[in-house]
Design brief:
614 residues; mainly alpha; 26 helices; 6% strand
Length: 614
Amino acid sequence: MVQATPAIVEMDPVVVERADAMFADYQHLLHKRIDRMFAVLMSVQWIAAILAALGLSPRTWSGPASQVHIHVWAALLLGGALTIYPIFMVWARPGQQATRHVIAAAQLLMSALLIHLTGGRIETHFHVFGSLAFLAFYRDWRVLVTATLVTAIDHVTRGYFAPLSVYGVRADAGWRWMEHASWVIFEDVFLLISCRTGLLELHTICTRDATLEASNVELESKVQLRTASLSDANVRLEALVTTDPLTGLPNHRALVDVIDKELERSRRYERPCTLLFLDVDHFKALNDGRGHAAGDSALEELGKVGTQVLRGIDTLGRWGGEEFVALLPETDAVTGLEIAERFRVSIAAHLFQCGGGIHLTCSLGIATFPDDATTRSDLVTAADRAMYAAKRMGRNQVRAVTDPVVDTMAVGNMSSREEVAMQGTVEALASLVEARDAYTGEHTEGVARLAVRIAQKMGMDSAEVRLVELVGKLHDIGKVAIPDQILQKPGKLTEEEWILMRRHPEIGADVVSRVPSLRIAAPGIRSHHERWDGCGYPDGLAGRAIPLIARVVTAADVYSAITTTRVYRDAQPHHDALAELRRCAGSQFDPEVVIALDQLFGEVAGQEPLARAA
């Protein structure tokens, strides 16, 4: 076993121990592989020895006449013994030290047999040097010592008693064994140096792998700790009291429980129940113009006024921000509209004390169970949509979800406040990426725009196109966990750095999966570095097993990366990027996506690259 270098000794003992274990495993696998090689080699040598005994040995020892010679039996029997026993050891005890020494001794005795069969021809002496070279593959100096001792004993013994069989002369000059020993020792020196160097390199590789493995474990541990921290925070949030600290009204969580219970009671007794959703008009202007303290005071005062307007059986609570929800039990749509209008008039007439006295208005939407919705989520969404229509129609008014104008009100592809909130979350996460790395932030915007154009060209429906845009904007969110020295490195990444970089799709998918409204984007984010031919990461998906959303974003991502300036290279021309995507269609990219991209650029020939100009 190679001893650890001083640099290794100063490392974490766990890393050193792991490196030593990996080194031992690699050595054992190497020894088993070389054992099998020698098993094949010695079988071939045995056949060669028999052929030499049949064809060459009789002429060498008995003149030109070809005849069956006793060497044939030596080759057959002695060669068999030198072959069969090592092969048995390879089968019975692969990779063991005893097996290596048996192979070393048998291999050099086979060299002696071949030298003997050829009458000491100088050509066959090179079999000794070749055998030593092959034995050096073990990277075990003790095996070379065994082989050298066997060779020395053979040359000294046969040189004295039968010089013709080893040197090809009938009388030994007395120095021949010293000459051969010198050549063997000369080769041993270089082979021992090679073994030493090879083992040091192997141990260095094992140390590097163990260090990288420890880094990965540490990174995973940090991710787990952060995940656990988020879980603990969620537990603490869930354990908060059910009262909003600003207004003293029920908070969002309490309202959810109240709505669920009241809907269950209404369902059981087949009674109506109306939900009122209100939002303070121009509240942001109030906060910006008079300060957040004034805004907080207005919300607190609004809660008090609203409570006085509503009936005793009604429940008013703060849904979030400047939004309030009122639950009106035993109330149909007509009565609900009357109460909502009374609420609106009271708020508009009230003089709020914040900022020296101001008037505020609010927009309200209502929905009734069971006519408009049968579940809490659908009921809140319906009332929210009605409130949003009231805002779009000029604010300071009440709208029921059954009002025809509600169905005609939309903002782009958005139809509810929840979707607006989701878009805000997306923009916040995208801003986080841009704050972390300005290039990545700009890049993701370009990717999202181009991916939408591709999706539309492929005939995807509106929901799929919106999901493509979402994944395009957030596909690199996982890079917030990548260290700056890797993320902003101007040169080529090392293998260890690449391993960390390749984790960003998994990290990004994990992040968005923790936001319920964004969970649908997690598969696309996780798979945006998969390849059509299955050689991508992190899951090695291939072909249509890769989500279509990810395939579209992948093509847009690569096009944008090629045509924009990176820290390690300049931007490439549009036609070069398109040629690269065509070349890799069917290997890296979905051919249908590349065709759509090709057609898209064909329609806008001569314009700036879409990832920047879209």
